[in-house]
Amino acid sequence: MENVLFLAVPILYILFTIYFANLNHAKDEYEQQNVRLLLYGAPFLMVLGGMSVLTYAMIVGGLPADMTEAELLEAGFTQRPTISGAFLIISLLLSAGGTFLPIQIIQSRTLREKIRDWLPVSSKFDVNSHIHTTALVFVILVTVLIIIQLFILESAAASETVDINLADILLQSAIQIVGALLGIGFAIRRQLPQALARLGLTIPTWKDLGWAVLAVIVAFVWVIAIGILMSLFFTEEQLAEMNQSSDALIKALSGSLFLMFFVSINAAVSEELLFRGALQPVLGNVLTSVFFALLHTQVLFSPGVIAIFGVSMIFGVIRQRYNTTTAIMAHFLYDFIVLSIFRAGV
């Protein structure tokens, strides 16, 4: 809960900006200019991200060399953190690029046209839509901040235990659902029938369930293949170290059947509404899946990034060819089976 509360200001800023962009989507140029001005808060948050990296580096660099374990714990570290020059350079470059690129996207129609041409034909990115520009800017913002956060986490000790709070899960799901509904303009420029159609939600059928099961089978084949491939390049000890945080999270989530079901259904509904329902039709499957994978990665540059990206792409194909309802069912089945396998100790 503390992490969510700490992020309350940027989350509220993002949600309000999405709401404001939808509210003013059909108004005159003056009102649209107000949307652009509001978007400039995103580059400002990027600058704050870069400053947080420098602050963290100074804190780590200022720790006395002779600190005991108790003193490190008191300072908030499970072991002495290390930070490299490469980490600083990459993080600051990301922060700088994440500051410069959104500004150019906001100001330059030409750049937005180039981005539209780069996106797949199935995407409906509109260079004149401030709603679509808002979505793209915030995807860049959140992605850069997540990468910076992951770098910081990698400099400290990986946690072997994870505390699961149901309130945190519900709050995160609520934020994602609200973001999806605001993004497609529900109750602002779309009423319920139009909103359901835009999100790709339909009444589930047995055929949908069949496609969901097939998608899950393909997803597991992909994950197993990635695991085999990674075993050719890394030792068991290296893979265990890279997957330590992910394994700790899955272990915590598989604590009981109720928790497994609760987490699986919450993730399936909220994440598919946001990623496949709201974002994918605008940004395409690849960019949406990159964003999805980064949001689900506990350790940067681990095999999990590639595995989750592929699973997301599979869900994206289901959304594109069928509907979001089928993707929700596939997501639920996949998560629940993964947690069940881990709980059984297979």
Helix and strand pattern: HHHHHHHHHHHHHHHHH
The helix fraction, in percent, is over 70%
Query: What spatial form do the alpha-carbon principal axes imply?
Result: globular
- Calculate the mean pLDDT score and round it: 84
Structural class: mainly alpha
Main sheet: strands, sense, barrel: none
Number of strands: 0
Uncertain stretches? none
Beta-strand share of residues: under 5%
What is the alpha-carbon Rg in Å?
21 Å
Task: Compile the SSE list and pairings.
Elements: H1 2-6, H2 8-23, H3 29-39, H4 41-61, H5 69-74, H6 85-107, H7 109-118, H8 130-155, H9 166-183, H10 192-199, H11 206-231, H12 236-242, H13 244-253, H14 257-283, H15 285-295, H16 303-321, H17 324-344
Question: What does this protein look like?
Answer:
The chain has about 350 residues and is mainly α. The protein folds into two domains: about 1-155, no CATH class; about 160-345, no CATH class. It is about 75% helix and about 0% strand. The model has no long low-confidence stretch (mean pLDDT about 85).
Question: What would a concise description of this structure say?
Answer:
The protein is mainly alpha-helical and 346 residues long. It is built from 17 helices and no strands.
Descriptors:
single chain, 346 residues, mainly alpha, 2 domains, 77% helix, globular
